[in-house]
Amino acid sequence: MITFQGPVWLIVATFFGALFLWCKEPPGALRVYKLAAITDRIQNESARYWIQLGIFLILGTFVALAFTAPSNVRQAFAAGLGWTAGLCGSRGSRAR
Questions:
Q1: H/E run at residue 91
Q2: Dist. CA 14–CA 83, nearest whole Å
Q3: 28 vs 14, 31, 48, 53, 85, CA distance in Å?
Q4: Which of 10, 12, 42, 43 could form a disulfide with 48 if both were Cys (CB 3.0 to 4.6 A apart)?
Q5: What tens digit of pLDDT does each residue of 65-74 get?
Q6: 43: Cβ–Cβ under 8 A, 6 or more apart, which residues?
Q7: What is the DSSP string of 13-66?
Q8: What pLDDT is stored for residue 84 in this prediction?
Q9: Kind plus residue range of the DSSP H or E element containing 76
C-alpha cells in the first residue's frame, strides 16, 4: 500500500488544492491582487492565462504552506484551497 507522507506530498497536495480552486471558477474570474495590473499588459490572451495560472499556483502553494504548516495531505489540500482563495479576488465578489 502506498502512503502519501512527507514534505513532497504536502507540496503536491497544496498545489492541487490551489489548482482545484482555479478550475472551479470560470476563466478570467480569479485574479491575483496587485499582480493583475502587470499581467493585464500582456497582449496575447493565451499567454496571459498561462502566466496568471502559474503565478496563482506557485504563490498560492508557498503562501499556503508557509501560513498553515500542514501535517498531512488532507490539511495541505485544504490549505491550498483556503489560503489561495485569500490571495485572489473574484470579479463577481465585488458586485455585492
A1: none
A2: 10
A3: 21, 7, 10, 10, 14
A4: 42
A5: 888 888 888 8
A6: none
A7: HHHHHHHHHHHHSPTT-EEETTTHHHHTT---HHHHHHHHHHHHHHHHHHHHHH
A8: 64
A9: helix 73-87
